[in-house]
Amino acid sequence: MTHADTAPPETPTAASIDGRHFQFVGATESVYEPGGLVVLASPGQVRQLGQVEKASFTIGGAPHGSGRILGLLTHDGGHLDVRRSVAFGSATLHPADARTTELLYGDATGSLPIGSFLASPDTPARLLAHRFNRHTFWCGQSGSGKTYALGVVLEQLLIHTAMPMVIFDPNADFVHMRQAHPAGATTDARRALAARDIRVLRPTSPSPDALRVRFLDLSMRAKAAVFRLDPLDDRAEHNELMHIEDTVGLVDPTKIVPGLRARGTPEARDLAARTENLRVTDWDVWAQGLAAVTDILETRPDATVLDLGGFANPEESLVVALAVLDDLWAKREQRRPLLIVIDEAHNFCSPDQTSPLHVAVRERIVQIAAEGRKFGLWLLLSTQRPSRVHPSIMSQCDNLALMKMTSPTDLDELATIFGFVPPAMLARASRFKQGEALFAGGFVPAPTVVTMGPRLTREGGADVEVPLR
């Protein structure tokens, strides 16, 4: 279809030679944006739902572009058959209304209301709840509203599904999920959320909400990572660590160093010095008789928020992450579904981090990304910097949520990994305003640009306002 030197048509028209994709030319006053939904009406009362994937225009000329056909609409317009579509030589097209757009989601009871279509504020936007059984990548630069929007979706998952979740929360953004937003009125949704079992574990909380790890329950690899021991390079100390439970005991951390020194062997003295230098026994993360986080997760609360930012030593948060991920992997054959939400994921699975704890956590996440889905372990990774997340993890994600992102490097990487997103829609992310997002992949019936709805609970990490006179 050629657009140059032709008068704009009075009525927008389209054509499809394969029944899957279409090209169109609009009238001069027509407005079409990548992601917009249109109804294609061809002779014989055949109506189909399509989505614009590419659109361009010249000043004074007609907009034109291309898109794909999503399905065949029934004659009464009450059903969308996504398995059928037909080719046509000519069709008129016009924007889909809210009622037609709703047909995309089929049975609305299986969907999560998260906001509205950016191009149609009166049309609700939804995610398909049952497709969170795939890994999800969630990203947006600082100030895009990424964490707020993630809270919207997690709240809706808690209201509309029975899927338990554990949230790795480095910045205390989700620690108020049990508290209703003060600006909201009481609704059925708020009551449903208030009825859920939400545990918030914090380093400074008293029992039973203290965030703790039991050292004896850690795998040998995890214990070695805590002490930064290599099984070959540090074989003498590593061997001493393997038998420390039998020779010293670990119920009281204050007795570890004296117990090692009392053994009198060179390797025990070396391990004692290492323990003192790293100040491992001073860490607040050790259970010391309190319930461990793995014990609490075993009871499967509806949501368990782990406040990882409250530890004095940054390696303590990695110990918690490793303990939880190792325990879930060790019990994977139980096939108990769990959504594993990791906020600021670049802190846990960056390819550039080389400390033993970082490496151990990253490798476990890589393993869960590659094999966890069949065991009911599903990742939701949220980050400001996609380029700082290991590509082996990103490549396993079937769902994408993208908020404002202006970094060309990050956008190029997203385009490479998430090839199912139309490039023109991906490019819009650099122009998003706060609270606008692109959703694509299995958890939406078609790539969707959304204005996010309000939170039902308090946000923990809201910006601090500048004091004014």
Could you please describe the fold and organization of this structure?
The chain starts with 12 loop residues before the first strand and ends in a 17-residue tail after the last strand. By secondary structure, it is an alpha/beta fold. It has three domains: 13-105; 110-213 and 285-452, Rossmann fold; 215-282. The model is unreliable at 1-5 (pLDDT under 50). The protein has an eleven-stranded mixed sheet with strand order 9-8-18-17-16-10-15-14-11-13-12. A six-stranded antiparallel barrel has the order 1-2-5-4-3-7. It has helices spanning 98-102, 146-160, 188-194, 220-226, 235-242, 244-247, 256-263, 266-278, 293-298, 314-330, 356-371, 391-394, 408-417, 423-427, and strands spanning 13-16, 21-25, 37-42, 46-56, 64-73, 80-81, 88-95, 111-117, 120-128, 136-139, 165-169, 198-201, 303-307, 338-342, 377-383, 399-402, 436-441, 448-452. It is elongated, with a radius of gyration of 27 Å.
**What's the count of strands?**
18
Radius of gyration: 27 Å
Instruction: Calculate the mean pLDDT score and round it.
Output: 90
CATH topology of the largest domain: Rossmann fold
User: Number of folding domains?
Assistant: 3
Helix content: 25-40%
Query: Structural class of the helix and strand makeup?
Result: alpha/beta
How much of the sequence lies in strands comes to: 15-25%
Uncertain regions: pLDDT < 50 for 5+ in a row?
1-5
User: Ends: how far apart?
Assistant: 61 Å
Oligomer: single chain
**For the record, what is the CATH homologous superfamily label of the largest domain?**
P-loop containing nucleotide triphosphate hydrolases
Shape: elongated
CATH architecture of the largest domain: 3-Layer(aba) Sandwich
User: How many strands, which pairing sense, and closed or not: the largest β-sheet?
Assistant: 11 strands, mixed
- CATH class of the largest domain reads Alpha Beta
Helix tally equals 14
